[in-house]
Design a protein that fits this description.
binds fe (ii) ion, eight-stranded antiparallel beta sheet, four-stranded antiparallel beta sheet, 12 helices, Jelly Rolls
Amino acid sequence: MAKATTSTASKKTKKAPKASAAAAAKKAPKKKSARLNGKAPKSAGGRASGKTLFATRGTDFRLEQVISPISPKVFFRSYWEKKPLVINRRNPNYYKELLTLEDIDQVITSMNLPFPEIELTNAKEAISRNQYTRGNNRIDVAKLYDLFANGATVILPHLHRRLPGLAAFCRGMEHDFSMPYQTNIYLTPENAQGFRTHYDTHDVFVLQIAGTKSWRIYNTPVDLPHRGQRFVAEDTPKGEVTQTFKLKPGDMVYIPRGIMHDADAQKQKGTSLHITVGALAYTWTDLMLEAMSTVSLKNSDFRRSLPIGYAKPGYRRTKAKEEFKSLVRKFATSADFEEALDQFADRITAGHRPVLSGQMAQVEQLAALSVKSVIQPRPALIYNMLRGNGQFVISISGKEIAFPSFAGSAVRYALSTKRYRIGDLPGDLDDEGKVTLITRLVREGLVMAGPN
Ligand SMILES: [Fe+2]
C-alpha cells in the first residue's frame, strides 16, 4: 500500500496550528493512548463501479447474503455454535457473483497454480501427486482433468488468496465476525465417492455452486471441539442420523464444529462445485491462555520450576496442590481482560488485508477530485482509531497512519459514512484541506471515489 506523501489538510480557522506535510506523513507514536473505538464502523457495501468486473466481484457477499433469508440476529441466537442451518433457495444463480464453474475452469487452466494449491483426491483409490504434476510441482492440467473424469475430486485450498472475489468475501466475514476466515473449493465429478463421516474443528458454511449432493447429519460426539481435538475415525463412532437434506446450486448449510456429517456419494447429480467457508474462531480458551501468558511475564511466581522430583513414585503432592491453588487465585485477581482482548483485536486488525480492487483507476483520478466528488469507504475495513501526541491515528493492516488531531472528525466521518461528497466532511478543514485529506485516504486504500 502506498505510503502517505501528500501534504496535510489545511485549516480554515486559526485556532489550531497549521499542520505540515511532514506532520501528516509522520509515523504514529509507538505508545498507544486512549482507544477511541474498538469496533470498526459499518462499512459501505456495493461495488465501486457498479459493473460485474472480475476484480470487484464478491464484495457484496457477506454473512447476510450467506444465510439469507435468515437474519444475522436469528442466526446468532439459534444456530451459531449450536446446530446446523440448511437454506434451500431454489435460485441456482445465487452465488454467481462469488464463483462459477467457469471461474474454476479458468483458475485451473490459466493461473498455473502449483501443487498443493491444487490437489487431487479419490476415496476409491489413492492418487499420488506424481500422477498429475511435473517438475517444481507444476500441475499437468490435461492429466488433472483425466483423473477428474475417472472420479477424482479437485481441491483448491485457500483460493481466497488468489481470487479477488473470494478475498473480498472473506474480508467481509472477518469484519462481521472478528475472526479469520478461509475458503476451500471442492470440484467433484458425478458419482464420485463423497467424503466420509467426520466432524471439523472449525465451523463451516458450505455454499453449493453447481451439482446436487445429499447430506446427512449425525449426533454430536464432541461439543465445540478445540482445534487440537481433531477427528479420529477409530475413536469416534458416528451414531444415528439426525438430519438429512439435499444441497442444490444456490443452497447453503452451516455446520458448527464437532457435528458429524457426510455427503452421499451415490446420489450426487452432475459435477459438484462447492465452497467450504471456514470460521477460524478465537475462543475463550485462547483469551485465557493469552491473559495467563501476560500474568506470567509480570509475576515470577508463575515462572518458578515445578517441585523437584514431583514425577517420582511416592511424591507427596499436598504442598504443591496448595501452591497451585494460590497461583490460580493470583491469576484470577491479576488477569487483565482489556489487555488480553486488545491483543486479539490487534491481531485481527493487523492481519486483515483490505481488498484494493480498482486501486489503479482510483489513483488515476486523484487529480480530478473536487468538493463535489462522491466518496465511499472501502468495504469491510477493520481498523482502530487512536489519539495521542496531538495526532489522530488509524491503525490498519499492521501499519499506523497519522493525521493531525484537528482532522480527526473528518477522518472518522470519511471512514464511517456510506456515501458522501468531499464537501460534506465535518470539522474545520477548508475545501482544499478536505480534498487533500480524501486524496490521502484514497492513496492509503481506505476510501474510493465515485461513481458520482
Ligand atoms: Fe466437513
